[in-house]
Amino acid sequence: MKINNSESEKNKDKKNGRLSKKVMLSSILHSAVLGVLVLFISVGIFMYSILRSNYEDTVYMARTISSVLQKNADVPMLVDAVLSQERENQNFEAEFEKSNPADTEGQLLNYRWYTEENPPLAKREDYQQVIDIIATFNGNNPDLNGSCLMVFDKETHIASLLCDVEKFGKDEAVLVDEVLWRRFEDIELDHIEQERWSLLKNLIRYMKIDPRYVVFAWYETFPYPDENVVVFIEADVFYSNLWSNVFSFILIFLLLILAVVLVLGALYRSKMQKMIVNPINAVADAARNYASDRKNEVKSGEYFSSLNLNTGDEIESLSDIMAEMEKEIEIYEENLTRVTTERERLSAELDVAASIQRDMLPQIFPVYPERVEFDIYATMDPAKEVGGDFYDIFMIDDDHLALVMADVSGKGIPAALFMVISKTMLKNRAMMGGDPADIFNDVNKRLCEGNRTFMFVTVWLGILTISTGEVVEANAGHENPFLLKGNGGEYHELKFEHDLVLGAMKNTRYNSDRFVLDPGDTIFIYTDGVPEATNSEGSRYEMSRLSEVLGNNMDSEPEELLRKVREDVDTFVGEAQQFDDLTMMAFKYRG
């Protein structure tokens, strides 16, 4: 027993810690999820702010270059020279087509360059002036990768690129001393317009080329008088250290989140321990102690009423409900104890009453062992502790034997009381003499007196003249007996006219009938509990089956006959509960 208690305590300790661990894990998980969410949002905001800032820096650089060129260089004159070569040189178109086949790669800025030879535009003074200014900007801005002047002629659909200064991802800038041409479609200008105003499109296009770098390009429109000509100052910027900054930010933020998660988790666990875990454990301990003390039949005061949780939530409501349940169980147990005690007292009294009732009936057979003229046996099995059926066998004088079989209305104690009264009256009146009709007349009147419960009794009474075998009988609403003639006949019902039951109407007149028993004849008398025995399917035993089992046992002596009938009834009824009292009597006349 000690081992079991020790194991129970260990299991209790394990279970008490599980809720606390779950709360801790829950707090860490929730804090971690919140931290990751904040991390993603913060990284997104951080990256957007950096990218936006770099994008705006690129725009500013391009506009600054354009502004300086407008003040310090004659860009329109240089553009006029480029357009003059495209439009006025008759050999230019053929040479350009020969050296620059159609662009099939479909990328906006993928030029197949044509190198000029004559005239040398890149040697012009205005060309050198423009490229010097652009190169100065590239040298002073380490993030600026390249800048150039771009001319799109809608008349010839030729795009030219000149004054190009490129670092190609290196520290030193390279000056391209030549003008480059290619074919273009008008839709390319639409693409340029869309991309230069979209941060996302601008970023994605260049990251497709090399995702290691963040590249922005801006095309700043340069004023030119010809509407068919579009002039751009293009600037593209490489931000090679952007990703390292982002990764550093993520690392620092992760460390910060870890610290916040640990702090918040500890605070959350402490709060949940106080608000939820401890009150729940208090209710659980009270319930465990209550169950253990009840099992050991120990009462050690209040269990739930003394908790005083004061949480102001469902846990306090649960504690209050358990306290009310505790009080209701105590009241119920007190009532149950009282009712049980009362039932035990009543059961004891019923046992005594049943014993008294059995003792009132003839129990020892043969009843008159000195009389060889007859053999008789009877049984009575009540449906409850006490019953309303009874039988009686008594000698009126040396030559007259009275046989009584009766069934009182109802069951239980009221029927038993009425049975005692009826049995006593019948025997006392029969001992005074007279035939069964006279006996019934007198007993009926007495039973009707003060019978406010309207109880009644069915009775079959037969008085046998032993010397002659003559039987005078009266039937007050009882079942017909069965008679077996001893000369090889069959069992058949003794059907005489029935009279009204005893105790129903005071002035009822009863009649007697007569029949004669020959030596070897047998009478079987019973109450309605036999033919009305019911099985679990609701079917009744019925008279036909009773007649059959009697016919199968015509040679049986009274005791054996009653045993055979009862076995057949039990077989038929099966597991069904006994519904009515079963009372039977068998009388064999030997002469």
Question: What's the CATH topology name of the largest domain?
Answer: Phosphatase 2c, domain 1
Question: Count of helical segments?
Answer: 12
Our Rg estimate from Cα atoms comes to 60 Å
Give the class-level CATH name of the largest domain. Answer: Alpha Beta
Biggest sheet: strands, sense, closure? Answer: 6 strands, antiparallel
SS elements, strand count: 16
Rounded mean pLDDT score:
80
The secondary-structure class comes to alpha+beta
Low-confidence blocks of residues: 102-118
Distance separating the two termini:
74 Å
What is the CATH architecture term of the largest domain? 4-Layer Sandwich
Question: At the fourth CATH level, what is the homologous superfamily of the largest domain?
Answer: PPM-type phosphatase domain
Succession of helices and strands: HHHHEEEEHHEEHHEEEHHEEEEEEHHE
Q: Please indicate the count of domains.
A: 3
Morphology: rod-shaped
Beta strand %:
15-25%
Q: Please estimate the helix content.
A: 40-55%
Write the layout of secondary structure elements.
Layout: H1 2-72, H2 75-88, H3 90-99, H4 125-140, E1 144-153, E2 158-166, E3 174-176, E4 180-183, H5 186-196, H6 199-207, E5 214-222, E6 229-239, H7 242-295, H8 314-360, E7 374-381, E8 389-397, E9 400-408, H9 412-431, H10 436-448, E10 457-465, E11 470-476, E12 482-484, E13 491-493, E14 513-516, E15 522-526, H11 542-551, H12 558-573, E16 582-589
Helix pairs in contact: 1-4, 1-7, 7-8, 9-10
